[in-house]
TrEMBL record:
Belongs to the HIBADH-related family. Residues 165-255 form the 3-hydroxyisobutyrate dehydrogenase-like NAD-binding domain. This is NAD(P)-dependent oxidoreductase. The active site is at K171. Keywords: NAD, Oxidoreductase. It holds the Pfam family NAD_binding_11. Residues 3-161 form the 6-phosphogluconate dehydrogenase NADP-binding domain.
């Protein structure tokens, strides 16, 4: 079978890697912290000492770390994945990063005979564990098809959206709109309060009505606790920033209303509520 490597075993990547090994693929993992690999002790997964050792043991490598610099590090460092991976290998970048970073890394990988696709994801660890993760892929059709059997251990649907970078563009658009919708949902529930409508009742109406959104549903499911969203604020800020950078570079004006809502959301999430009493 295809030998698979995976780096990035957090709340999103961990369940993805677990699906891969549970489907019987020979899996090699690497993590900066040994504790991140401990949940795989009951599996057949092997733990590499370096990303290069992981690359040497893999035909396909998935990368699900946080930011552009993290992806570059695990791929390009002296003991990085590309230092060990043989020509003919394939790297799938699941992290949400700048499309230009994907293209730059693909050039570096191509010099070593390694192909790159971008395959960012949406849905969370629960969706990955249930084999229901949305995967947005960009890259050459033959490379996406080569990775498809591995990706479909956790993906449903897996969408091939075009050339390299297309998956990142789609994911950035998704996160940009979601960030705007969070602000809209917060304002909506505050408005419901002022109207004298119980928030839970308002959420039930939105869930079954045309005015609902994924953001409103997430807020309602949390009991209107924004702690989780506040914890994700740095990631949302990164994605909004990259979206606007890409829009500027392509002279594709971002919708002003969405941009204002997204910025307002980030301001709200990064400023804790005042202490009571």
């Amino acid at each position: 079978m295809t030998r698979v490597g995976f780096i990035g075993l957090g709340s999103q990547g961990g369940p993805m890697a677990r699906r891969i090994v549970d489907e019987g693929y020979p899996l090699t993992i690497w993590a900066r912290r040994a504790a991140s690999a401990e949940p795989f002790a009951d599996t057949a997964a092997k733990v590499a000492r370096t990303p290069a050792e992981l690359g040497e043991a893999s035909d396909v490598v998935g990368i699900c770390v946080v930011a552009d610099a993290d992806v570059e590090d695990v791929l390009l460092r002296p003991d990085g994945v590309l230092a060990g991976m043989a020509p003919g290998g394939l790297v799938a970048i699941h992290s949400t990063i700048h499309p230009d970073t994907c293209r730059r890394l693909a050039e570096a990988a191509g010099e070593r005979g390694v192909a790159v696709i971008d395959a960012p994801v949406s849905g969370g660890g629960g969706a990955a564990a249930a084999r229901g993760l949305l995967v947005m892929a960009g890259g050459a059709a033959e490379d996406v098809e080569r990775a498809r059997p591995v990706l479909e251990t956790f993906a449903n649907p897996l969408l091939h959206l075009g050339p390299l970078g297309s998956g990142q563009l789609a994911k950035l658009l998704n996160n940009f709109v979601f960030t705007a919708q969070v602000g809209l949902a917060l304002d909506t529930f505050a408005f419901a309060d002022r109207l004298g409508i119980d928030r839970a009742a308002a959420a039930a109406v939105l869930a079954g009505g045309s005015g609902g959104s994924r953001a409103a549903a997430i807020l309602a499911a949390s009991g209107f606790d924004t702690t989780g969203l506040r914890g994700a604020a740095a990631l949302l800020e990164k994605d909004v920033r990259i979206t606007l950078e890409v829009a500027d570079a392509q002279s594709a004006a971002a919708p002003r209303a969405l941009a204002d809502l997204a910025r307002g959301t980030l301001t709200t999430l990064t400023n804790p509520p005042p202490a009571v009493g």
